[in-house]
Design a protein that fits this description.
heterodimer, A: mainly beta, 6-stranded mixed beta sheet, 0% helix, B: 116 residues, mainly beta, 7-stranded mixed beta sheet, 4-stranded antiparallel beta sheet, 11 strands
Chain lengths: 111, 116
Amino acid sequence: AQSVTQLDSQVPVFEEAPVELRCNYSSSVSVYLFWYVQYPNQGLQLLLKYLSGSTLVKGINGFEAEFNKSQTSFHLRKPSVHISDTAEYFCACSGNTPLVFGKGTRLSVIA
Amino acid sequence: GAVVSQHPSWVICKSGTSVKIECRSLDFQATTMFWYRQFPKQSLMLMATSNEGSKATYEQGVEKDKFLINHASLTLSTLTVTSAHPEDSSFYICSARGGTGVETQYFGPGTRLLVL
């Protein structure tokens, strides 16, 4: 069975500052890792995913994440955030099973 | 590519009525579809998994007779909330997996259900 822990429920950050949203996973098998973003009253949009290969993956909207197997982490980063990045971010993992989600991190970008 | 649509986006109904929500994969064949429920400020809770042509597999605690799922084709799955009650009010999101990216789930925009 897999599980995902998002360590921060809320992250406030000033506009144009860097941000890191933390995610740790637990699994007894190889996993695929994902980050999704959810804007208010909308579904989830895929930001990026790690399936295999290079541990640094780049996604949409300037986000990137690094898979660290030894630390079982998949933290999401952006070097400079915009007001429009304010949303809920979900980390998820899958071992070819339905996605298991973390509880989400609310990113609030302050002008 | 990989677009999933849901209809309707909003529905308000009286207690005791049934509501059907449609989920469609628009540009790929979804061998597997998933239905999630999300309460305010919470994460997504998986309700059931369905494979085309097969009966859905429900998660523990989800009433099969209340939440009827049909996955009749590779592009359409429906969720029917039967005899809806106010406690069924929630945000329902479908997800589809298939095509070349079989490991990736793509999500619909969600359906907000309010039962009065």
